Amino acid sequence: MDIKFDRFASVLFLAMGVLFMIGSRHIASSSYGSVVGPDIFPFILGIILVLLSVRLFWETFLTRGSNAKKEKLEYKPFLIIFATTFIYILTLETIGYVITTFLFLFVCYQTMERANLLKSIIISALFSAGVFYLYVEVLKGTLPGWPIWF
Predict the structure, then answer these.
(1) Domain containing 23: what range?
(2) Model pTM?
(3) Which residue, 71, 97, 123, sits at the end of a domain?
(4) Residue 79 · residue 132 · CB < 8 Å
(5) How many CB atoms lie under 10 A from the CB of residue 71?
């Protein structure tokens, strides 16, 4: 753990979380055919990001006195997940939420832990289908559905 990097990252994420919360206030509070407005999700993400960054900042002060050893940075998993996120953003509208989210989560889980393929498939499928069902059916929101050719 690099204390200086963690402290810098926590301040950066705190600012990003606050900007998410401020920016979400400028989004319309409801959309056509949806009870849940598009401003809710970014605002909640901003709150979560602020809380996690405050916790990280606090932990940097708790571990300051301890002898923390520096860990080797792993660039390959970071670049794989970064590229997967970029592809996810580009294909969400055309392929649909369930398929794109399943593939995104599957690639991310396999990047982090290659050992258990079946577990990654089950978690990715349950999460993407579960969130789609909860958001569309229960909360009456709208998400990109299935592709036209499906």
Answers:
(1) 1-71
(2) 0.62
(3) 71
(4) no
(5) 8
Q: Which of 71, 103, 126 is the last residue of a domain?
A: 71
Alpha-carbon dihedral 117, 120, 125, 130, rounded to 10 degrees: 160
Q: What percent of the chain has pLDDT over 70?
A: 83
Neighbour-count burial for 8-45, b at 16+ CB within 10 Å, e otherwise: eebeebbeebeebbeebeeeeeeeeeeebeebeebbee
150 shares its domain with 78: yes
More confident residue, 51 or 27: 51
HSE-CB for 69 with a 13 A CA cutoff: 2
- Token pair recorded at residue 141: 């929101």
Tens of pLDDT, residues 29-57: 665 556 666 667 778 888 999 999 999 99
